[in-house]
Design brief:
alpha+beta; Alpha-Beta Plaits; Immunoglobulin-like; 9 domains; eight-stranded mixed β-sheet; elongated
């Protein structure tokens, strides 16, 4: 079977209009309708039709010759009826404030009023009873009781309102008791609302003490709130408009964010009016609106107890304009466009362009207001931006103007750069190797970012070869080459760059081949020839070029004979002694090379000694001949080489004629591989791009040194050559990277290995400064080392180790590096504390290199009387250090029993700049078992108390101040202790009256405070001088107590001065002892404690309470020293004034003339008073004023220390 169902029931609501023309039916119908109960059920069995309500809506009555139609309670005329018909007088039941309750004449579409919409009235009323906290708790009995009673009264009262539906109590708040509640109804008239409120009062128990005058009602949904414009920009003129059919001119505006009512000002204007006697309109106009004006605004219209409120939030947008911040333009007459667009599309009325600057380069704008973009195009040529103003910046401004007045602009910085006119050295440059030349490049533009020189291949010339000087007329850059090599042959570019604009001038340089004087190998260096004998002389170079070579002696010149031997070319001349008439004689022979450019170079001299033949004893075909005792040198290339040894290519061999044989006296030969490296190093220092070649060369040097270490150990000269190479290369770099430093130390590690030590010993007997030169070279490389990381790489080799760090924000508080060499059984460490690190600039690097074997060769003399027996550590900082700098080091103690350790440093200036050990400035701080600790010796002088400066450590001034300080403080401490003992012994006998009691109280406290302060000062100096690195906590504590008790000394001296003044001036006034003691101790200890605590509290959290180099108040960072200096000097001035008053009292004239004896007595009294008051009132501290200023004369420091250390 199939189930069937009837269609779902549909419900319709039907409004039926019934009209009665007889006005007499009005009241009976109203009475009848009032008696009915709704809904009324229909009688149909099939479909139900229920009558929900029957109400009278519209009543028309004849009035005179007119018909007046009015709406009953809860109904109102539609707005269009009000606009089309004339209104009559107000009907009693018309809604509050409305002027359209009654119309004249029948409306053309029938007299039909419409039901008003529901509104929710947010109301409040005050009960004049005490507020109880239970009224905040909705579940409390009191809350429920109040709510029930009040809602019952509200229902009975407000049920007379048209369209009344609901009333609800929403809460209570203090002020006696304020009841808040909501009434849902149609908008009633004020009169009807007052009647309803009266009904509420009558239906509420009088114990609630309801205040009738406190009824308030706020309604919403009645006001039309509009904002013009919808999108608001800063600077716009904005209108906020409120419209309401309630007729009232009592309208207020409120800005929520500023929590204030809006008043008429220069930027805010409020205007309220009633239009056509039908609508209230209030307009708030905000001129030149800012983002601070954004937020929520409330428009509130008030009529009787009703408030009609509407609120809206406005957002104020900044005018964001997209355009480039800056542009660089070259004045080459090419079109340039500046583009400016608004990020938000708005109603723009105009986009304007203007410019500001020294030069005027106009253009033409193209603007599209709809898209909010504008383009400004101009052409700049050389006449508009002349060379003198190259690099001038012109500001182009694109300004957007909105329809409502907002203006926003964007500045575009356009830098105009003319193509700089460069003038370069006009004459052709043609030089030969070894000669100098310079190229001068002059620009008519003085404004540039960079000047550089390049080769035609784009290789940048090392900056040490050129200098640039700027002047008002332009700029001059000069490239200077002191020794030209063939690498300098080519075209050179002088480049001026400003922003992205480049000006280039070129110059060709021709460098003709010509051997350099050191590259011409001569043989012999010195020769002895019998008067009738002969000798071959030769000059050799490494390449075969077309040179004209002659040998010259005195005024004679001889053509040389050319001989090619592999890669070496030699020019020879056979000198016949019989060809000259002078014998015996000493002559200098030179070989003279002339190239195709007619430039010439002369070799080093070959010394010729013509002697009688009978004196010749030693003869050798290679070495030559000589008389007994004769010492000669020969280049190793032309010397006798022991069998089996590789022929060296560098250095010299020294021979001595002993008997009839030549003996080797000194061997300075350099092996071929090392000599080649030395020649390359010399060439590199003359190269135009030496900084680019240096990394590769250092890598090759490191690898080659390891490969040829056998040759290095065989030839002491090779070892010296490597030292010379490192010395040469250390002068090249301005910056060294980690890889370069690693290669340098790899080379050093090889030449300092233990197998090399015997070679060093031989070498040291010949040249004692080579080890010092090596150390100096490593330090130069260390100072040039740069790293981006705060922690350097750690390099560990058998014979050398390196550690380092970069000073950066948040870097470690201390620098401490440890070095351990297990092969040498040596260790050591170096430490620099935070105070010293704090004096370094950010980006400074600290590098420490340690050597275990350098101690064996770094001796002051060949005998090695003063020998280091620990690690040699060198620490460098790559920035200049202007303040005293202190380093602590610890070494393994390897001193034999009975030996006395010394802490020394290598002073490169000793022994005629060959270097030596120096102990000045450093000392042994501790010998503990197998360790020796060294630190610098740096004492603290007394004058530091009031001076921002500290004497330079080790200076004569520092030593003198230290001696005065410590002697004076020791005497003072003993004297003050004795003073306190004496005071304690005689206290009862000298304090019998108030005056003497207070005087001795002040003296005793001055002595006690000064004693503690002086002891604290010595303790602080000891902390600083003997316990380095500084113990920060101890230093802060010492500084605090020194500050506190020296201030106490001054304030007790002030108390004593004021007491003297009080007794001299206020003779007849006598305060009680308790008052005087309270004032004295408050001044003496209270004020210093407050100042000291505030000072340490304000500065110590930032760790700038104490100085970096002393335990005393900071000056450089926080000027905390003023917390001592200012109170001290003020007190000194006050006490000086009191002293003057005392003297004036003594000099007061007596009646009659003074006899001579009385005058002498007065003079004695004055002297006695000054003598007593000067130390008691601290007048000598006035000299501290002279030491407060930085750089003050040393005399003031000495006087200040001398006077006050003995106080």
């Amino acid at each position: 079977s199939v189930a069937s169902s009837s269609p779902a029931a549909e419900e319709y609501t039907v409004d039926v209009e019934i009209s009665f023309e007889n006005a007499s039916f009005l009241e009976p119908i109203k009475a009848y309708l009032h008696s009915l109960s709704f809904p009324i059920q229909g009688n149909s069995t099939d479909q139900a039709a229920n009558i929900l309500s029957i109400e009278v809506t519209t009543v028309c009555r004849p009035t005179g010759n007119e018909i007046w139609c009015s709406c009953e309670t809860g109904y109102r005329w539609p707005q269009e009826r009000c606009l089309q018909n004339l209104t009559c007088q107000e009907h009693a039941s018309a809604p509050a404030g409305h002027r359209c309750g009654c119309l004249k004449g029948l409306p053309p579409k029938g007299p039909f009023c419409q039901l008003q919409g529901d509104v929710t009235l947010r109301m409040s009323v005050r009960l004049n009873v005490g507020f109880q906290e239970d009224l905040r708790n909705t579940s409390s009995a009191l809350y429920r009781s109040y709510k029930t009673d009040l809602e019952t009264a509200f229902w009975k009262g407000y049920s007379i309102l048209p369209g009344f539906k609901l009333v609800t109590v929403t809460g209570f708040r203090p002020g006696s008791v304020v009841v808040t509640y909501e009434v849902k109804t149609t908008t009633p008239s004020p009169e009807l609302m007052h009647k309803a409120n009266e009904q509420v009062m009558q239906n509420l128990n009088q114990t609630y003490k309801m205040d009738y005058s406190s009824f308030q009602a706020v309604t919403s949904n009645e006001t039309k709130f509009t904002i013009i414009p919808e999108i608001i920009f800063e600077g716009d003129t904005v209108n906020l408009v409120c419209e309401n059919e309630v007729l009232s001119s009592n309208v207020s505006w409120h800005h929520i964010e500023r929590r204030s009512d809006v008043q008429n000002t220069s930027r805010f204007s409020v205007y309220t009016t009633v239009l056509n006697n039908m609508t209230s309109v209030s307009r708030l106009t905000i001129y030149n609106i800012t983002q601070g004006d954004a937020g929520e605004y409330i428009c509130k219209l008030t009529l009787d107890i009703f408030e009609y409120e509407s609120r809206k939030k406005i957002d104020v947008l900044p005018l964001r304009i997209s355009a480039p911040e800056e542009m660089k333009v070259t004045c080459d007459n090419n079109p340039v466009s500046l583009n400016c667009c608004s990020e938000i599309n708005a109603n723009w009325s105009a986009i304007e362009w203007k410019q500001e600057g020294k030069i005027n380069i106009p253009g033409s704008p193209e603007t599209d207001l709809e898209s909010g973009c504008s383009r400004y195009t101009f052409r700049a040529d050389g006449t508009q931006c002349p060379s003198g103003l190259a690099g001038t910046t012109v500001i182009y401004v694109c300004e957007f103007v909105s329809t409502y007045g907002a203006r926003g602009s964007k500045n575009i910085e356009v830098t105009f750069t003319s193509v700089a006119n460069l003038t370069i050295t006009p004459d052709p440059i043609s030089v030969s190797e070894g000669q100098n030349f310079s190229i001068k490049c002059i620009s008519d533009v003085s404004n540039y970012d960079e000047v550089s020189w390049n080769t035609s291949a784009g290789i940048k010339i090392y900056q040490k070869f050129y200098t640039t000087r700027r002047s008002a007329a332009g700029t001059e850059s000069v490239l200077t080459v002191k020794t030209a090599t063939r690498e300098w042959n080519g075209t050179y570019h002088c480049i001026f760059r400003h922003k992205n604009s480049y000006s280039v001038a070129m110059k060709d340089v021709t460098v003709h081949p010509l051997p350099l004087e050191p590259d011409i190998l001569v043989d012999p260096l010195e020769a002895t020839v019998p008067c009738k004998g002969s000798r071959h002389f030769r000059c050799c170079i490494k390449e075969d070029k077309d040179y004209k070579v002659t040998f010259r002696m005195d005024s004679l010149s001889f053509l040389a004979e050319k001989e090619v031997n592999g890669k070496q070319v030699c020019y020879k001349y056979n000198f016949m002694a019989s060809s000259v008439s002078w014998c015996p004689k000493k002559l200098d022979i030179f070989c003279h090379f002339t190239n195709a450019a007619n430039h010439s170079v002369q070799s080093s001299s070959m010394k010729l000694n013509l002697v009688p033949g009978e004196k010749i004893m030693c003869r050798d075909p290679t070495i030559g001949v000589g008389e007994p005792g004769k010492v000669i040198q020969k280049l190793c290339q032309f010397s006798n080489v022991p069998s089996g040894a590789e022929r060296p290519t560098g250095g010299t061999m020294t021979y001595k004629c002993v008997g009839s044989r030549w003996e080797v006296k000194k061997n300075d030969c350099i092996s071929a591989p090392i000599n080649n490296l030395l020649q390359l190093a010399k060439a590199l220092t003359k190269s135009p791009c030496q900084d680019k070649k240096l990394p590769t060369y250092l890598r090759d040097l490191s690898v080659s040194t390891v490969k040829v270490k056998h040759e290095v150990s065989s030839f002491p000269g090779s070892l010296g050559a490597i030292v010379n190479i490192l010395d040469l290369l250390s002068t090249v770099p301005t910056q060294v990277n980690s890889e370069m430093m690693s290669n340098v130390l790899s080379t050093v590690n090889t030449i300092l290995s233990k197998p090399m030590l015997s070679t060093w010993k031989v070498f040291q007997k010949q040249q004692t400064n080579q080890s010092s030169q090596l150390l100096d070279s490593v330090e130069r490389f260390s100072r040039a080392l740069r790293s981006e990381d705060s922690a350097f790489l750690s390099i560990n080799q058998t014979n050398v180790q390196m550690r380092g760090m970069v000073i950066q924000p948040g870097h470690p508080k201390t620098y401490k590096q440890n070095f351990v060499f297990s092969d040498s059984d040596l260790w050591g460490n170096v430490a620099i504390d935070k105070c010293e690190l704090g004096s370094l600039q950010w980006g400074s690097s600290i590098v420490t290199v340690a050597f275990p074997t350098l101690k064996n060769i770094l001796t002051q003399d060949g005998q090695g009387k003063n020998v280091a027996n620990s690690l040699v550590m060198t620490t460098t900082v790559n920035r200049n250090i202007t303040m005293p700098f202190r380093i602590s080091m610890t070494f393994k103690n390897t001193i034999p029993s009975g030996g006395v350790p010394q802490c020394v440093f290598w002073n490169f200036d000793l022994a005629n700049h060959t270097g030596g050990w120096d102990s000045s400035g450093c000392y042994v701080s501790r010998v503990d078992g197998d360790s020796v600790s060294c630190i610098c010796d740096h004492l603290t002088s007394f004058s530091i108390l009031m001076s921002p400066d500290s004497p330079y450590p080790g200076s004569l001034l520092e030593i003198l101040l230290d001696i005065i300080s410590y002697i004076g403080l020791c005497f003072s401490i003993l004297s003050l202790a004795a003073c306190l003992v004496v005071e304690a012994v005689v206290w009862k006998s000298v304090t019998k009256n108030r005056t003497s009691y207070m005087r001795h109280t002040c003296i005793a406290n001055i002595a006690a405070s000064l004693l503690v302060a002086d002891i604290g000062f010595i303790v602080a100096a000891a902390i600083h001088d003997h316990f380095y690195p500084l113990n920060e906590t101890a230093c802060v504590a010492a500084t605090f107590f020194i500050h506190l008790f020296y201030l106490s000394v001054f304030f007790w001296m002030l108390t004593l001065g004021l007491m003297v003044f009080y007794r001299l001036v206020f003779i007849l006034h006598d305060a009680s002892k308790s008052i005087q003691k309270t004032i004295a101790f408050s001044l003496g200890y209270g004020c210093p404690l407050v100042i000291s605590v505030i000072t340490v509290g304000a500065t110590q959290p930032q760790e700038v309470y104490t100085r970096k180099n002393a335990c005393w108040l900071n000056w450089e960072d926080t000027k905390a020293l003023l917390a001592f200096v200012i109170p001290a000097l003020i007190i000194v001035v006050v006490n000086v004034t009191i002293t003057v008053v005392v003297i004036s009292k003594i000099l007061r004239p007596s009646i009659g003339d003074k006899p001579s004896k009385q005058e002498k007595s007065s003079l004695f009294q004055i002297s006695k008073s000054i003598g007593v008051l000067t130390p008691l009132l601290g007048l000598t501290w006035g000299f501290g004023l002279a030491t407060v200023f930085q750089g003050s004369n040393a005399v003031f420091h000495i006087i200040f220390t001398l006077l006050n250390a003995f106080q």
